[in-house]
Write a structure and sequence with these properties.
Length: 889
Amino acid sequence: MANVLIFTVFFAVSVTSGAESCLIPSSLYVLVPQTIPAGYQVAKVKAADCDPNSLQLTLKDPSFTIQINGEITTLTPVSLASGERTFSVRAQDNSGPGSEMEVHLVCQKMQETNQKGQVLLRRTKRRWGVAPLNIRENYKGAFPQLIERIVSDSAANYTVFYDLSGKGATEFPFDVFFINRITGDLFANQPVDREEIAVYKLSVSATDQRTGQQRDLPLGIEVVVDDENDNAPVFQGSLDFSVPEQSLGVKVGVVQATDKDDPNTDHARFIFKILSGGDNFAINSNTGVITTKTNTLDREVLDKYMVTIECRDMKGAPSGLSNTATATIRLTDINDNPPTFTKTSYTATIPENEKDKLILRIPVEDKDLMYTPNWISKFVITKGNENGNFRIDKDPKTNDGLLYVTKPLDYETNKNVKLEISARNEAELNGTTAQWQTVPVDVAVTDVDEGPEFFPPTVLFTIKENLPNGTLIGTYSALDPETRKSDGIMYYKLSDPGMWVNVDKNTGELRVANTIDRESDLVHDGMYNITVRAVDPSSKSGIGTVVLVIEDVNDNQPVIPPQLVMCESKTDQLSSLLIMPEDKDLSPFSSPFSFNLLPEYEEKWSLKALNATTATLAQVKPLPTGIYEVGMIVRDLQGFGEKQTTKVTICQCRAGVCLAKRSSVALGPMGALALFLPLALLLLLFLVLAIFCSTKGDIAKFDEYGNTGGILLASNTEAPGDEVDSNLIIAPTTGLDHAVKGSKKGSVVNTGWLGNISSSTIGGHSMHDFGYQPGIITTNLHEYTSSQYDRSGQLVGNGMDYGQFSQDTSYMETYRTNQLLLDRKTFAFVTEDDGRFAEDIVHSYRYEGAGSDAGSVGCCSDQGDSANLDFLDALGPKFKTLADVCTKS
């Protein structure tokens, strides 16, 4: 019995929208020998909708290869021991994602043969079948509708029943078809719609009526629904399009439509046609592409068109079904309209000397779409602005031109300025023959009474330094802009830092007033500036600048440093140092310098020029550390120079600085006296306290109702005292004032110089520092001349009459010493000027956080030996504050 060999190919159908893809069948079954030799052509693959220029065919099995024409051949012998082999083939081009196919190689079975090797033939059983059946959709005739009679081959020998199953019979939709079980007639029970189901797949079986056995295999039947033109085309997608104005033959857009009828019939082949709007637009009847057919489309006239389009199937035949739609076509703007001025010319008026001021608004009109580059204007001053006096901007809201004056105009120079202004757009003109427009603008300058002006505003005078006073430098005059004259104009200096120049008030002449020094800090880069003001009779003024270019003269000689340090050499070589003189003059009045050592110093030193500005000072023989004077003459290029002396310090140093040596400190006589002075004052304090305690019971009582202006009053005030009123300090003139009641002896009290002040400090001392205690009875004072005191402040002769005291001699001596000091100080207040001791009075000082290291010392309280002033050399820095206070006027 022979086997039936099957060669089956399965195709995959891909429905795409948009771009087409390169397609090949999804699978391929090929019958091949069990052993395939090398070079054997297995199959040939054909691709559809592929670009032949970019098509690439590839497979993944190394035993096979594929050619560009799709032929698959073996590279090596292949054996199909398992009976089947599968590999994949891929097709790819530049048009889309590509596709892939599986190739199944199926081995042929060997045919049976007899003993002679002849192939044994076997008969196959014939099977009943039927061709595909057709039925027209939307049939409106009588039902049931006979479609076909189905007859089984077994009906010739058996009595069979027919049964129908499948979609449309036993599956949804039910009862669309049924079969006569006896005759096998297949009927349609109702109308069918191809757009719902195009093919019904049914199955018919034949069963023996007597035994109930199936006498044939089930028969598959396909009922194909024939299409009827029952669906009109339907428009798809947006029908809103846009196109630039004045475009001819430009694509506007594509109209798309679909039809549910069979696409393989004329029922779904439709034609497009424009029903209205055909004067300006055309449509391709097959593709639906809309284009412009005229260049007269003007957005400024009409910016939107409504076009009615018909789509009819049956290739546009009158019997075909149709549908209509309205397409909206909008015109986009192009810059086919330049901005235009509303006037043919413009005028403006501006006073002279004004700037940064809007003088004119220039409106323009533009028909293009507002606030687009086709509408936005740009203004350009094309003529008359050569000096840059004007600028023009635009108003972003109104699109107007704004003309400004940016630099002051001069009426005397130009009374009228003629400008030309052009108006343009940001975008270039398109689709028009029009050109950018210009407009004339006449700007009138009005006169303003101005102050005088210097011509030029800045003037340069070149002079030499050190000119004699009164030398004429030059004349710097101003003119009235209206009259061009200098009548009545006065000149004044505004700036002259060095007061070097005088300006004649009437003529503007500049003369030297003081020595002009080019080397002064007021001169920069050899120039010195003076500012001059000119004032006219109406008090209007103008300012000018005078620049003095000062030429150098040889008025400075080279100067060497006054002190130099020479480091002591640590080797056998002699020490040296560099001398670099300074000459403030410029060349040729400065370097190169010439150096000459004075003869009296040549025994120890040598001086040699190193370069144009430096010399080397070296030891001729070793010198011990110390300070040496060295004299030399340094001359500039003109030979100007004098003898100079510098002090050279030879020392051990580090980084050019002498190292400090340890030295012992010795106290002189005044230093020793300063150490013992506090001890002596302490002993004096104990002595005064002892006297006070021994006389405590004999203290006299003062008259509480009398004149108490000449005594000290008890006070517990701990704050600083009040400043002494100078009117209270008077010379004692009376011999006797008020007697003190209760005293043992009738002594008197001196009054009138202290008043009622508290016991505060006077000249840095308190009253207790002078040995004063409450209750001491003073004597009356006579006037004394300065001749009655010696240089040390001691009273000469018996110039005073002291009262009798009941105290001991030590108390009296202490009192006499203090009384003499007070008398001398009082006399000095009377005889000297008020200003000298203005600082030596009671002050109230703010506490600043630290006391004085020098203590409280007044400028007039030091009444020591005035003959020996050597102690002043030993005063340290702590007395600097005291000196500053005492020397103020």
